[in-house]
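Exercise 7.
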Amino acid sequence: VQTQFSVDGMTCASCVARVERVLSKVPGVTDVAVNLAAETARISHAPEVEPSSLAAVLSKAGYPARIETLTLDVQGMTCASCVGRVEKALLSTAGVVEASVNLASESARLRYYSGQVDATALQAKLAKRGYPALVREQSEADTTQARKAEEAQTLRHLLIWAACLGLPVFV
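Solution. The predicted structure, written as tokens, is:
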């Protein structure tokens, strides 16, 4: 079985080596490939190894798996039993950390490990149970762009500080 996580906090080759080393020590893990540029870790492991335990190991090492949020507009819910069935279906999906279903707004909000959940598969799963769902348009791309812009701004500030402090050394 292969599991892939988006990993936060990796900044250098040493971080990559540490993530690989920590994940390789988990019983049942056969192969680990970490990509610094893409900020991902791809883990090959035995079926009995839970993705949540791998995420916990990453978090304990200081490199938490990125958690994303998805909101679905769920149709066909009429009572609390429907809410329970939808919530149970969502929580049974590998990679889902938390699911919250609201009957009044006919929506389901879930938190999941980035790269672990496919929205179309969730929609198909709910439709099979009689609850058609649509992905509520969220600005996930905007969130990623905002995070990258913030990182670029931080690096720009560090560059300015380094230039100001380095200039007297050259003079």
